[in-house]
Amino acid sequence: xSHQYDYIIVGAGSAGxxxxxxxxxxxKHRVLLLETGGSDxxxxxxxxxxxSIPMNTKxxxxxxxxxxxxxxxxxxxxxxxxxxxxxxxxxNGMVYVRGHAFDFDEWEQEGAIGWSYANCLPYFKKSxxxxxxxxxxxxxxxxxxxxxxxxxxxxLYRAFIDAGVEAGYLYTEDYNGQRQEGFxxxxxTVKNGLRWSTANAYLKPAMTRNNLDVVTHALVxxxxxxxxxxxxxxxxxxxxxxxxHVNAEVILxxxxxxSPHILQLSGIGEKETLERAGIELKHxxxxxxxxxxxxxxxxxxxRCKKPITLNGKLGLWDKFLIGARWFFFKDGLxxxxxxxxxxxxxxxxxxxxPDMQYHFLPxxxxxxxxxxxxxxxxxxxxxxxxPKSRGWVKVTASDPTIPPKIQFNYLEHEDDRxxxxxxxxxxxxxxxxxxxxxxxxxxxxxxxxxxxDEEIDQFVRxxxxxxxxxxxxxxxxxxxxxxxxxxxxxxxxxGLRVVDSSIFPTIPNGNxxxxxxxxxxxxADLILGKCLPESxxxxxxxxxxxxxxxxxxxxxxxx
Length: 559
What we know:
Elements: E1 4-10, H1 16-24, E2 31-34, H2 43-46, H3 52-55, E3 61-65, E4 78-82, H4 101-109, H5 117-127, E5 128-130, E6 144-146, H6 155-166, E7 182-185, E8 190-191, E9 194-195, H7 198-206, E10 212-215, E11 219-226, E12 229-237, E13 240-252, H8 255-265, E14 268-269, H9 271-276, E15 283-284, E16 290-292, E17 296-304, H10 316-329, E18 341-345, E19 356-361, E20 377-384, E21 391-394, E22 405-407, H11 414-431, E23 440-445, H12 453-463, E24 465-466, E25 496-498, H13 513-527, E26 540-541, E27 556-557
Parallel strand pairs: 1-2, 1-13, 2-10, 5-6, 13-25, 14-15
Antiparallel strand pairs: 3-4, 7-18, 8-9, 11-12, 12-13, 16-21, 17-20, 17-23, 17-24, 18-19, 19-20, 21-22, 26-27
Helix pairs in contact: 1-7, 1-13, 5-13, 11-12
């Protein structure tokens, strides 16, 4: 293996695999990709329905845990991050949501100049291979396959969409297209029955090139600095330390926990945090690890009146049959994540774009795959997706094997608590619509007795879970707390970038794999000194959003 590279990428995850592909495709640059985890060949990674297994397995995921969360009754929250080729795209739920157009205009308003929706849409399209072909909003020839899985064969999926429309919300055929708001089919990153992670979509084709070296089981200790310039990386593999140098740039793509931690281990961050960890300050950058954001969600669970749910498929024999069919044919219930319908709505009038998201599941079960109760059930995952609470990631020691402290401060802001009260009340109304009458039985969770603000707040504090979307801990911008500039370069350090979801200024309304891949696509072009033309398409928002919480009327274009 060569010990001199043009680019060193730290982390073979959702962003790192994209960068490894794009920076090597011309053949002009030598690239080293370092990943702490190992191979993604496990059947539990590649089979979509087995998604709960790698997420909860130490071999494939960092099993981070937060500090006691003060606004969640002191609970410590699970925060898994991918530790395998493909990173979190190899352990996630495979849901493909870009976010709302206004989310990216918000980034630009926050100081990420050049990251508006008009700038970002061409890179969403570049990355994507949409099952129904290219149009003004969707890509048809990219590496990342997206589709609707089993095309909503279970009638519960369609009933949920119909209930949303009956409740007065919009129907949207494509929430990743012209209009996010409304209820419709949900999209996933699955191809030919396989999880289509960035390892499958981007990295494996690139690994055939002789200008890319991929080193697994490599734990990065720190970035090597000469003054204010990054010149390489120190990493450990099988107990041996390796020092590797770079001609152009070091790129951190270790994720919203790993990237700020590596910066701090390298002496880049807030002085007091580094001093407490016994690390010499080499470059003061107080925003490192700050601005941490995440989505929370809880499950609304109901008994199902008909025996048509996945709860009837949880026995060992049924699981064997599902697995065998997937193994031989790559289809059936093993080839989907089971989240095949969804909704995006606004929690109250005066909000221009959706701040709530639904994932519908024709089963009542936990994230670890265990049944919630005996019998048939269904559940709706619901969360308030534009939180105002902010947390942090802080290094605790100079030893890279000691995890950082993590605090999200979930529900610290009153607006976030108000948003979850709306989640409870609006979801109950939707699930009582005629479309659900034939299916939806008694409420299991939260339970009909949960009614007042105080009762809802208590239920949420005790029951809410992370949606596993940490982000924003190395924010992009130009203010004093920004870590990288709009070119993704670390402020004040030459030859060092961060490219992953940690650089989001604010968290989008949706799952984060799609926007992370988009960020990496655009960052690759910025690194190579090129850029796709801006898009001129005009998305839509609800006509009377200033006055109405829902608007089942014709929409208007965003001005």
